[in-house]
Amino acid sequence: MSSTSAAPGRGEKPPMRDALVAAAFRLFLERGYEQTTVDDIVALAGVGRRSFFRYFPSKEDVVFPDHERCLADMEAFLAASDDGHEPVRRVCDAARLVLGLYAENPTFSVQRYRLTKRVPGLRAYELSVVWRYERALAEYLRARFADRREGTLRADVIAAAVVAAHNNALRSWLRSDGKGDAGAEVDRALGYVLSTYAGTPGPAPAAAEADGDVVVVVSRRDAPLWRVVQELEGVLGRG
Amino acid sequence: MSSTSAAPGRGEKPPMRDALVAAAFRLFLERGYEQTTVDDIVALAGVGRRSFFRYFPSKEDVVFPDHERCLADMEAFLAASDDGHEPVRRVCDAARLVLGLYAENPTFSVQRYRLTKRVPGLRAYELSVVWRYERALAEYLRARFADRREGTLRADVIAAAVVAAHNNALRSWLRSDGKGDAGAEVDRALGYVLSTYAGTPGPAPAAAEADGDVVVVVSRRDAPLWRVVQELEGVLGRG
């Protein structure tokens, strides 16, 4: 991984594709995104227009060259799940694949973040990318929650919570110019979502349930203490 | 409220603006969105191009004629809050303003839903609208949570959860062609988010805290029962 190259780093990719991304970002940073044409990019990269459009449907796509691959990785990761995977933990792990894409090349990621903030069209493109990640997570959870009450509602809400937590940490890291430990920040943010949702089978605020190694009791504050303790003893199997 | 007019109904709006929306939707439905030009719309409405662009920056904007107003309503509603409002309940109430916009004219809302599903550019536009609503909710929560641990993280996650729940119910209602009780569906969906987040002061899985009328105790399952009871008594002020 090179933190000084403008091209993203991971995996085996055609050199021409990398050259186009590097040329595009050099021009975007020098002249601005709107002032750079596809012709400018192919001229700097020393290739023809058709080569550009073989890799990228539009100028916007060259700004986010690896999201299609990351989305495919995420879908493959989720498809390789089995019933032994706690579903919320699994989608958190899937979300970390996106973090990995950003963290593998901090310089490129920070440059793109600044560019995207300045160009409304790129912001819209990014929102549609985020939406596709969120749908992939939600589809997985919907399947896992198919036999649960309000399964699609819970799947959609948890997928949105995971994406929001991930992006809160990712944006914080990008705003700090890619300094600091992105993985630790995202773990902390996803930990909040996990503490809320992981292993809890449903929206049953008046009940007490045991699942895994924690017990959650939710009680009205004015409930008699003996009732709360009784409930707790029942759940812990010590009553 | 008219459920047969193609123009949205609420509030006082210039008749020319309504006429442009009605003409646009008639053409979008007859010919398709891509095949309809602004010239076609102004010809049918009997006005000039400049009149169109006085009300709508682009052809996309005429598809969502009331979101700017609804966003302003939402911001005004949140700005009119005081510390007595439970924050999560307040953002759920703010989200219901969006539902109101859709429910006041089911025919128009269902037509637009179908159109948006078919046209990728409109889908992207809608995502940017949803993002702006979510940011308005998150900004309010960030301010309310300013003195809490992980306030911005929690604000972002809860705003995303509220929007996801709202949209899950809204889409379900739109898919049913606007039949059924949209308000009841959204209440049920937001109730799930409220039961998770309302009145809970923070992501403190090892601690117990009192806030409002509920107490949440989270404990390791193997914790000695006396320790859990001691914690509970301390929080309830009965120790």
CATH architectural label of the largest domain in chain A: Orthogonal Bundle
Order of adjacent strands in the largest pleated sheet of chain A: 1-2
Largest interface: A-B, 49 and 49 residues
Work out the strand percent of chain A: under 5%
Low-confidence stretches of chain A: 1-10, 201-213
- Give me the CATH fold name of the largest domain in chain A: Tetracycline Repressor, domain 2
Number of domains of chain A: 3
CATH class of the largest domain in chain A reads Mainly Alpha
- Listing every helix as H and every strand as E from the N terminus to the C terminus, the arrangement of chain A reads HHHHHHHHHHEEH
The multimeric state of the shown protein is homodimer
Bin the helical content of chain A. 55-70%
Helix count from the secondary structure assignment of chain A: 11
Q: What distance lies between the first and last C-alpha atoms of chain A, to the nearest angstrom?
A: 57 Å
Task: Return the average pLDDT of chain A rounded to an integer.
Answer: 84
Major beta-sheet overview of chain A: 2 strands, antiparallel
CATH-level-4 superfamily name of the largest domain in chain A: Tetracycline Repressor, domain 2
Number of strands of chain A: 2
Q: Briefly note the structural class of the backbone of chain A.
A: mainly alpha
Shape of chain A: elongated
What is the rounded Rg of chain A?
A: 23 Å
Structure commentary:
The structure is a homodimer of 239-residue chains. Chain A folds into three domains: 15-61, Homeodomain-like (Arc Repressor Mutant, subunit A), CATH 1.10.10; 66-197, Tetracycline Repressor, domain 2; 204-239. Helix content of chain A is 66%, strand content 5%. Chain A has helices at residues 15-31, 38-45, 49-55, 59-63, 67-79, 87-103, 106-118, 120-144, 151-175, 182-197, 225-236, and strands spanning 208-211, 214-220. Chain A has a two-stranded antiparallel ribbon with strand order 1-2. In chain A, strand 1 (208-211) and strand 2 form a beta hairpin. In chain A, helix 6 (87-103) runs antiparallel to helix 8 (120-144) and helix 8 (120-144) crosses helix 9 (151-175). Strand 2 of chain A pairs antiparallel with strand 2 of chain B.
